[in-house]
User: Which sequence fits this backbone?
């Protein structure tokens, strides 16, 4: 799926992408992926800027790419157009921070208690809404300053894994990170490296292509040595996994050496669920899971679907005895990382999520599981139901047994 | 790394692929589907053509195939009406008629041979449908064919969201999610319903709505409805696709949607693995049997040797050699050796599904 002129000519204007775009569905004024992607791309390639604010409304969910019968990289075209998009100062300032969750995380975890208190005081949120156009309806996640210190056991003859933490786990859910490392150790992996860099997807989605390139390059330089030595990169965040697999290639195409490194990393990157599925022959899944009487619902995040790996977590959880699990199959949650936090996009974000919320209410589960941190935020915000990463559930059930 | 393994992999989720999946699931097989796009559902509304003109050699299990498909369409909450011995002439958006034996419930009532007053309803501002043109053509074609229905063009006004362009896609999405739009459409159609026995309207009743919602709408309106498939992407076609996919998924089919098949590995007359072109690296899927339902436009996965199919629907070469003993071809791929319409798609989908079950 390369964003080149041949790819552009593959677009036959069938409008299938418009029929699945979550934004187009709830917000008909949005010109849709066909228009913002391939149609304007022709003009952009001729040097006509065609800049429009609508570019910012693309969720980067990749559903257009997936439905395209001719494999046109519509999202890629829109992402590149975002890079040249001009924004007013306030939105530019806000998106500067949203593009850098790593920087935000570092600053906000200096005094986490104070930060968490401040971020959730109504007047502060109103002020942020006024000054930075961040929706006052949104509740910020709790920031936690904690390193993931798990004793590393060297298991002979095991594979080596780099656990790509991602900003959300690093700064908001270090406990989940700890569980993932424990999990990896349980299945006999000496999880030596924990890498806490930012994948750069938020920067790409916010149109800060320079920052996205900086992240992509630093990640590549860091990861390549271990990857060449045979390590796998495992990401528990689907957006990080998606970024590592698909986007570095387009960002760092300046020289063939870099391209080679990027492709090598992409090939070695696994979603956590995908990685476990590939290890399902290990002892973990035989008789070691205790049963659970929970009734849960599973939501597949867009960036999990875009990786084309099936539904690994759905199948893994199905192995839990007595657990009732239903795949919600209700489309995009509408949060799309930082999109749902933006004042002018909050309503659209919630409208998109409505189908998912309704579906959760219909199924009426005791909890929802999903791999993506921002999907969890959106579901908890929209339905007020406990939502966790599937790894937490599975590890708890294994711990209870052993 | 361990691969996915299925009893059956179906490539393509058009009418034939879906029927094959239905058949296999019904027999308790584990089925995976690899597909991109909506298949030919973007063009049509899922009608099953006149069964009386089926080729004489069509096997007798056509009845079973149709029954199984219809039963699943009903369970997916998009029931079809009709019977094998019946022919109805249903209007098309270009002002012609198609002879069908079965049609989804939202189209079935548009029977041209009944002596009724039909209103062809256009929507003000929508450029993709012209009620005057369609009504004029329908009257002309009806007269030519000695049909009794009379068509009158009508136009309704519907609100359009600010700054947006009026399109059937917009209205269909609003029908799905906006209860106010449902009421607005009711109000707009009410005056027409008093004068007409049948309202013909291009695809508007949502991309995800099921039988009950459209039935309720029709009931409240107190007038029969006939929803035509509009210019691509056809709203009724996408709706049928969406409900069938959801139904199959619920029944255990695993979808790998959005990626094309890069390679089909055939070794010693046996096909074992396909490589799906997912990001970063290929996804290898293992299977016992594989059905190609890739339609007539996709690239050929089995090369130019493909000449015909044997009695199990396995592709054979010109000399009669089976290309792979567990590989089957169905649907529009067989356009040269069968036919390329929904009847044949359902028939071949069912036959291939049953072949696999019998040969296991």
Assistant:
């Amino acid at each position: 799926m390369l964003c080149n002129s041949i790819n552009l000519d593959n677009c036959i204007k069938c409008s299938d992408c418009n029929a699945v775009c979550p934004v187009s569905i709830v917000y008909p004024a949005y010109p849709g992926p066909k228009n913002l992607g391939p149609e304007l791309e022709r003009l952009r390639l001729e040097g006509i800027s065609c800049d429009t604010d609508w570019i910012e409304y693309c969720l980067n969910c990749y559903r257009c790419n997936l439905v395209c019968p001719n494999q046109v990289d519509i999202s890629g075209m829109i992402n590149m157009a975002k890079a040249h998009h001009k924004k007013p100062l306030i939105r530019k300032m806000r998106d500067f921070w949203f593009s850098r969750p790593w920087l935000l995380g570092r600053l906000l975890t200096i005094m986490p208690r104070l930060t968490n208190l401040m971020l959730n005081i109504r007047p502060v949120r109103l002020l942020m809404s006024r000054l930075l156009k961040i929706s006052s309806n949104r509740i910020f996640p709790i920031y936690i300053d904690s390193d993931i210190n798990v004793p590393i056991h060297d298991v002979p003859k095991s594979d080596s894994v780099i656990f790509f933490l991602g900003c959300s786990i690093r700064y908001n859910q270090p406990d989940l990170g700890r569980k993932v490392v424990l999990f990896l150790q349980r299945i006999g992996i000496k999880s030596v490296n924990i890498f806490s860099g930012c994948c750069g997807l938020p920067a790409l989605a916010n149109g800060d292509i320079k920052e996205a390139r900086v992240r992509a390059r630093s990640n590549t330089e860091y990861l390549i040595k271990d990857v060449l030595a045979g390590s796998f990169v495992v990401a528990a965040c689907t957006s990080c996994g998606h970024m590592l697999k698909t986007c570095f290639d387009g960002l760092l195409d300046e020289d063939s050496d870099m391209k080679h490194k990027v492709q090598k990393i992409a090939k070695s990157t696994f979603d956590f669920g995908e990685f476990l599925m590939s290890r399902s022959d290990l002892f973990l899944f035989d008789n070691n899971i205790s049963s659970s009487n929970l009734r849960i619902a599973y939501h597949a995040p867009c960036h999990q679907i875009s990786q084309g790996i099936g539904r690994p977590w759905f199948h893994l959880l199905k192995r839990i005895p007595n657990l009732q699990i239903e795949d919600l199959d209700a489309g995009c949650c509408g949060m799309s990382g930082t999109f749902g936090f933006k004042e002018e996009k909050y309503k659209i974000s919630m409208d998109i999520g409505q189908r998912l919320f309704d579906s959760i209410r219909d199924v009426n589960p005791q909890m929802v599981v999903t791999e993506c941190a921002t999907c969890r935020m959106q579901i908890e915000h929209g339905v007020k139901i406990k939502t966790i990463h599937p790894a937490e559930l599975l590890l708890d059930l294994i711990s209870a047994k052993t | 790394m361990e691969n996915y393994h299925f009893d059956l992999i179906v490539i393509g989720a058009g009418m034939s692929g879906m029927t094959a999946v239905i058949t296999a699931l019904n027999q308790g097989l584990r089925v995976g589907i690899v597909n991109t796009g909506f298949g030919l559902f973007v063009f049509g509304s899922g009608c099953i053509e006149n069964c009386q003109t089926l080729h004489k050699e069509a096997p007798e299990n056509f009845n079973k195939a149709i029954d199984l498909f219809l039963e699943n369409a009903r369970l997916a909450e998009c029931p079809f009406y009709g019977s094998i011995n019946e022919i109805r002439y249903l209007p098309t958006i270009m002002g012609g008629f198609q002879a069908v034996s079965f049609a989804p419930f939202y189209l079935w009532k548009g029977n041209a041979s009944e002596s009724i007053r039909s209103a062809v309803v256009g929507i003000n501002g929508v450029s993709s449908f012209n009620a005057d043109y369609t009504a004029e053509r329908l009257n002309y074609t009806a007269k030519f064919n000695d049909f009794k229905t009379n068509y009158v063009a009508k136009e309704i006004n519907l609100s359009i969201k600010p700054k947006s362009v009026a399109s059937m896609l917009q209205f269909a999405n609003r029908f799905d999610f906006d209860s106010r739009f449902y009421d607005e459409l009711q109000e707009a159609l009410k005056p027409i319903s008093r004068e007409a026995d049948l309202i013909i309207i291009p695809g508007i009743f949502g991309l995800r709505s099921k039988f009950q919602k459209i039935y309720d709408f029709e009931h409240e309106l107190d007038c029969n409805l006939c929803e035509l498939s509009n210019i691509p992407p056809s709203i009724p076609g996408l709706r049928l696709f969406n409900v069938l996919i959801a139904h199959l998924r619920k029944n255990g089919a695993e979808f790998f949607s959005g990626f094309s098949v890069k390679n089909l590995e055939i070794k010693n007359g046996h096909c074992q693995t396909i490589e799906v072109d997912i990001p970063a690296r290929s996804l290898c899927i293992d299977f016992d049997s594989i059905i190609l339902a890739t339609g007539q436009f996709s690239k050929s996965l089995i090369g130019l040797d493909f000449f015909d199919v044997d009695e199990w629907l396995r592709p054979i070469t010109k000399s009669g050699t089976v290309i792979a003993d567990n590989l089957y071809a169905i649907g529009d791929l067989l356009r040269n050796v069968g036919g390329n319409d929904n009847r044949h798609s359902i028939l071949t989908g069912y036959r291939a599904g049953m072949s696999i079950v019998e040969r296991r």
